[in-house]
Structure formats: structure tokens, C-alpha cells
Write a structure and sequence with these properties.
The protein is mostly helical. 82% of the residues lie in helices and 0% in strands. The protein is built from eight helices and no strands.
Length: 173
């Protein structure tokens, strides 16, 4: 099985190369063109990412995140989200790396086999970095009006957080 998996990527590349030969496509020029397009997309979304990361850092450094957690803790408790996981639920829609760092801190302090640790891990795996995804993909595609995408994605994140807490209590609590 390992040999098959090891040969999978070279096999896919060989099939793509053969298809390019059959169709008489200049594979190297196509790869270079794709790389140039990728660099242009990256440069286009870079300002959005810089602003997003700066806003997240300011939110954490100013203490606003802690105040928001204190304000929302009764609501989180009512839906079953552990208070220790609330900062994770607030940061995750903005930053995957920030949420991962918070998740690691939660797991380190609460323990990997604790209900809080399990809940943090499931929250990380079942939700998305909504604002980052919308900024990157919509910015890269040139979409200026997201209409219902943001509210729908935030509702999906909220459902993911609540479901993570519920299922962790069910299976590990």
C-alpha cells in the first residue's frame, strides 16, 4: 500500500505530461504562466491579509478579546461551549494560525484528554477561517459583493462550534 501511495504523485504528473504531449500543449510555458498568475493573485491579496493580521493582533494585545469573552461567556455556557474555548471560537473565523496557537495553549493547559482539550481540537477541525477565506478567494476572483456569503459562513461556523461542544460532551463528557 505504501508503494502505491508513494507512486501516486509521480503517476499523476506522468499522466498530465502525457496528456499535454497528446494535445500538443507546451507544458513548460503553461506551468510558467500558471506560476506568474499565482504570484499576481498573491500580490493582489497581500494588502488584505496584512490588514487582517494586524487587526487580529490588536484585538488580542488590547485586551478586547478578553472583555468580549467575559461578555459572551453566559451565552457560551448556555449552548454548552466551555469558557476556555470561547477565545478560540472568536479568533477562528479571522485567523487559522492564531486559532491554532490558542488551541495549542488550551490543550496544553487543560490536557489533551480533557473535555476542553477535545472540544478545542474538534472546533479547530470543524470550522473555517471565514474572513480569511472570503478575503483571499473573493479578492483573488475579483468579487466585490459577497451578499449572503459572509452571514451564511458565520452561521455555519457558529453551528460548527456548538456541534463540536455538543458532540464532545456526548462522546467524551
Amino acid at each position: 500500500m505504501t508503494a502505491v501511495l508513494s507512486a501516486l504523485l509521480p503517476g499523476v504528473l506522468a499522466v498530465v505530461g502525457c496528456a499535454a504531449l497528446v494535445r500538443r500543449v507546451d507544458l513548460f510555458s503553461s506551468l510558467v504562466g500558471g506560476a506568474k498568475e499565482g504570484i499576481n493573485v498573491s500580490l493582489g491579496i497581500l494588502p488584505t491579509l496584512v490588514i487582517l493580521f494586524a487587526a487580529i493582533y490588536m484585538l488580542r494585545a488590547s485586551g478586547a478579546l478578553d472583555m468580549l469573552c467575559d461578555l459572551l461567556s453566559p451565552v457560551a455556557a448556555a449552548v454548552g461551549i466551555p469558557a476556555e474555548c470561547l477565545p478560540l471560537a472568536l479568533i477562528r473565523p479571522f485567523s487559522g494560525s492564531g486559532a491554532l496557537a490558542l488551541g495549542a495553549d488550551i490543550i496544553r493547559s487543560a490536557g489533551a484528554d480533557s473535555l476542553v482539550g477535545h472540544t478545542a481540537a474538534v472546533m479547530l477541525g470543524s470550522t473555517e477561517t471565514t474572513f480569511y477565506v472570503i478575503a483571499v478567494y473573493f479578492g483573488g476572483a475579483g468579487v466585490t459583493k459577497s451578499r449572503h456569503a459572509l452571514p451564511a459562513a458565520l452561521v455555519a461556523d457558529a453551528v460548527g462550534f456548538c456541534a463540536a461542544a455538543m458532540f464532545c460532551r456526548l462522546f467524551f463528557g
